[in-house]
Amino acid sequence: PVSVEGQPLAKGTYGLHTIPNPDSWTVIFSKTNTAWGSYSYKEDEDALRVNVKPRPLAEMKEALEFDFEDLKPDSTAVTLKWEKLGVPFTVSIKDSDQTLQNIRAQLKGRGQFTWQALDEGAQFCLTRKINLDEALRWADASVQNEERFDNLSTKADILKALNRPDEAKTAWNHALEIATPVQLYSYGRRLQSEKKGAEAMEIFQGVAKRFPQTVYGHLAQARIKSAAGDFTGAAAEATDAQNAAPTDAQKQSIKALIDRLQSKQDINK
To answer: pLDDT by residue for the chain (269 residues), tens digit each?
Structure first.
């Protein structure tokens, strides 16, 4: 069973509509999922309506995004992001056993041949600290399909949870060897979202040391200096990152960080 903002929503495929207001948005799940836009929307086809509060974004979003934030074992916040506004709504589940059965069924089909599906299954168990031996088998199979930073780091985390530190260290060191700047930086940001600030800073230090002249090397330095209260130095690093950014959208996103740093705001918060 799935709940959205605490209200039950039956299994199915829905159309998504919103009604924006200054202080709250109405998020609508429609039983009609084939409509183009909201031109043919009808209220009597609603499956569920919830009211949520929008929030300002620190970084400009040129294109519409849906991000999964505040990940927890039984819930996540799905956030619609566009320009400088975010509209989050919480999706939660109550039946981990059923989800695990669904994952197993998926991994008997096409999922067993892709690294992503196996890694996602392993991550599901890891975040809930359940079936860790099975999760490790899935992580190993994912690595065999395609060795990536993502699944190697998952494997390392599972081994750590199984109290096998030496094997965990070996897997993690190999993950670091093949990681790209964006993968390491994104991992650091994930740690921050999980309230693991000290571990995130260690990752950023590694990015800055290994990839100093890249966009993500400069961004990592900006976060390190911002955490230390050196907003001038952090803004200079962010400016270097902006100059090295390959796309206008990325430059605009980094500009939002520069603006915060020039206002002496810690971009890690």
So the answer is: 689 999 999 989 999 999 998 889 999 999 999 988 888 999 999 999 999 999 998 888 889 999 988 877 678 999 999 999 999 999 988 767 778 888 999 999 989 999 999 999 999 999 888 999 999 999 999 999 999 999 999 999 999 999 999 999 999 999 999 999 999 999 999 899 989 999 999 999 999 999 999 999 999 999 999 999 999 999 999 999 999 999 998 999 999 999 999 999 999 99
**Residue 238 token pair:** 């962010």
- State CA 60 to chain mean position distance: 17
> Are the C-beta atoms of residues 118 and 148 closer than 8 Å to each other?
no
Give all domains of the chain, ordered by start, each with its CATH number. 2-93 (no CATH), 96-178 (1.25.40.10), 183-262 (1.25.40.10)
